[in-house]
Write a structure and sequence with these properties.
Elements lengths: L18 E4 L14 H11 L2 H10 L16 H4 L18 E4 L7 H9 L2 H10 L4 H16 L1
Parallel strand pairs: 1-2
């Protein structure tokens, strides 16, 4: 808690193409071959009611971000701490001028899941942090991607 009191959440920096914020890639869905799709749809509809979503967000002290922008104004992000309000800018806010970004989303689904599962983005950041030059990191990532599409 003492360290948390010195931390703050702020929006990501803007690059030449805009401000991109990593987003959750885990969403609920219903398989096309499900035997009881109507019941599954009813369950998902029930679970995504705003009051139930807010209860789940409160239970995890604002860690999870709801998939709908209209559900990003729950009071938990104003009250969670320490210090109180430190997470206020955690979900994307209109004034952030940010776009949600899913890791690997520009690739085909089979490759995108491999990009995420293999942690290529995280590996790139780790290599940059350890002082590897950008060209070397880019070459490493390119090699990793080549291996995924073979």
């Amino acid at each position: 808690p003492a360290v948390g009191g010195d931390c703050w959440t702020f929006s990501a920096p803007r690059g030449p193409k805009g401000r991109f914020v990593p987003s959750e890639i885990f969403f609920w869905g219903i398989w096309s071959f499900s035997k009881n799709q109507s019941a599954a749809k009813e369950l998902l509809s029930y679970l995504m009611q705003q009051t139930l979503v807010e209860e789940r967000i409160n239970a995890v002290q604002g860690y999870n971000i709801p998939p709908f922008l209209g559900m990003r104004d729950f009071p938990i992000w104003e009250t969670a701490g320490p210090p109180q309000g430190t997470l206020f800018n955690y979900p994307i806010r209109p004034w952030h001028d940010a776009k949600p970004s899913l890791p690997g989303s520009s690739a085909s689904p089979d490759v995108a899941t491999q990009i995420y599962a293999n942690g290529i983005h995280t590996g790139m950041l780790s290599r940059l942090k350890n002082g590897d030059p950008i060209k070397q990191v880019t070459a490493w990532a390119s090699d990793q991607l080549d291996g995924l599409v073979r």
